[in-house]
Amino acid sequence: MPERYFLPKKAMFVIGTLLIFLAIVTSAFEGKPALDKSENKRDSVASVSAFRTVYKVLTSPRCMNCHPSGDVPLQGDDSHLHAMLPQRGKDGKGLYAMKCSNCHQPENSVGVHTPPGNPNWHLPPADMKMVFQGKTPHELAKQLIDPARNGHKNMAKLIAHADDGLVLAGWNPGEGRTLPPVSHEEFKKAWLAWIQNGAFAPAP
């Protein structure tokens, strides 16, 4: 007959204690989902409500003028085609000698309706146009959270984008231009609320 091996009593006691402990822990958490802080914060109603404010800002002239459906930027509070019809270009900074930075200096030019400025003034590049013009709230929300269409931004980068230099320039557009419909503080609050509650898109 094959020999039988027995564990020492001390080892059996330790193993038994561990099994009892595991049984208690399993029983305590049975039927409860794993803790996921991001999931616990998801609130579709709050998210969609916040996006209504975000949408109003993004489709205002201060944002939409540089997110046109075509390759010519828009201009003015009525979002007409830009004078001189500058083109987007591959990198979004203009085509040939007609570069955005020729007129849009690092700071706003002095005077009413003169070119607003920023060191990084440009449209989105040709391979990632990020069009706001003509988009419904559902379409724009879906686009904003899609890395293939939002400039390869993950959620962390989207959160940080609220304080991007060009975003902030929308609230410093120079003399004679209408500001976005809410303050930057209110926009940022709505932007974060939309994302942190799940970045839900309004119904189509």
Short description:
The protein is mostly helical. The protein has nine helices and four strands; from the N terminus they run H-H-H-H-E-E-E-E-H-H-H-H-H.
Describe, in plain words, how this protein is organized in 3D.
The structure is a single chain. By secondary structure, the protein is mainly alpha-helical. The protein has a domain at 42-80 and 127-196. Helices cover 39% and strands 4% of the residues. It has helices at 9-29, 37-40, 44-58, 61-64, 100-103, 137-144, 155-160, 165-169, 184-196; strands at residues 74-75, 80-81, 94-95, 98-99. The strands form 2 sheets. The protein has a two-stranded antiparallel sheet. Strands 3-4 form a two-stranded antiparallel ribbon. Strand 1 and strand 2 (80-81) form a beta hairpin. Helix 3 (44-58) runs antiparallel to helix 9. The longest helix has 21 residues, at 9-29. The radius of gyration is 27 Å and the shape is globular. The model is unreliable at 21-38 (pLDDT under 50).
Task: Give the count of helical stretches.
Answer: 9
**Arithmetic mean pLDDT:** 87
Radius of gyration: 27 Å
- Percentage of helical residues? 25-40%
Any idea what the shape is? Answer: globular
Q: Structural class given helices, strands, pairing?
A: mainly alpha
In what order do the strands lie side by side in the largest sheet? 1-2
User: What are the segments in which pLDDT stays under 50 over at least 5 consecutive residues?
Assistant: 21-38
* Chain oligomer state: single chain
Order of helices and strands: HHHHEEEEHHHHH
Described by strand count, sense and barrel closure, the largest sheet is: 2 strands, antiparallel
Measure the end-to-end span. Answer: 76 Å
Beta-strand residue fraction: under 5%
Number of strands: 4
